[in-house]
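Hey, I'm writing a tutorial for new members on how sequence and structure tokens pair up, and I'd like a real worked example in the thread rather than a made-up one. If someone can provide the structure for the chain below, I'll link this post from the tutorial.
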Amino acid sequence: MRKNIFLMIVLILFASHLKAMEIKTSSTFYFENFDDPKPEVEDCKDVNSPGASGGNSMVSPGQMFIKKSICQTQKNTANIKAPTDKKALFLSHEKAKKEIWKKYLNAMQPEKLEQLDYAFSKDNFNFNDYLSDCVFINDIVKKEEGMITSIVRCNINEQILDKELQIKSAAGQTTSGEGSYIAYFIVPRMMDKASIKRDDIVFDSNRTDDAASETVSVQDDGVGERTISSKSSKISKGKVDGGTRNITSDKYTYKSLHGIIDPSVIDGAFNGVLSRYHFETSDYGMLDLDCEGDAPDYDEMVEEYVEEGKLTKKTLKSAIKYAKNCGVKYFVHGSVTIDSKSEVNNNIQVNASMTTQVVLLGKRTKNVASISSQMTGEGKDFPQAARQAINDLASDVADKIAAKLNAKGIN
């Protein structure tokens, strides 16, 4: 009895960790003859990626991958041997599954699409490997009109797809067995709106402005005809007495969330995601202090980012040089900002945004990606809501960074 209960618990836990997305759609398959149905074949003349031979340079890598994955799969469909009526339904079902896959890819983030194109560019990719539990809800057959409309619902096995992407990641292909080293400097801050008044805007009493004016007159000659004449002149206008006027403008300032948001929130999210792609991660402030050169003052870096939303060129250059001397391959710098907070259903809700810049530290230091994202967090108090938003943001941004780097094929 205990053994059975244990097995049930294991199965429930296993099922809860399966990552699948359910998609439902309908598709119409057209045939010339129901007794001898012909598969609808995509135009696969240019399925090579743009960087390869003869690819369409106007098509993005992600769009090309959608086309390529469909074309590679349909080769196994055309010669399926089955009774003609069943074959017509089979071909209709295959087309419906294509539409499921297209729908899934069209909703995918661009970075991940590019990663797919890179990871599977030389493989025989079959999207059917990632579809499961397909249920064909209805088939509407109209022989006289030469069409079948199939309604299907399928699960996308994202867990399997993501695992293959992680195995094929750029960092995972390093010959040393160690992943690329990423150091990140992410500053949590909160927006604080302040109103600033600017006085002593002086108006010169002698200032004049010239402007053109037009006068129109209408003359009636008494016989039903009218003559329109016009003339123009210049007029001068100005403030005779001079004086001053107060102008009020809004300026947004920020305050640090240090002490409210534990750095481990960002550390855990970044490491949790990037390590799955075989990248090694470290907070910039935790780099080896035995590295050559002097590191810029960490507190001054934080203060710059809190106030300005960026590092000065001098500080950034110094930080990059130090990270490079520590063996870091990528330096990620940015901020996560709580833009607003409100009360919803007796809870505190915050809106947060995160912007990052990814710098490749090689023979030539260069920016290779800019990632931004927005999330909402909710909790019983502000710290809890902020932690949730920042954790979700950091995970999302880290996933996009990994996808972007792998899409570029750099490790």
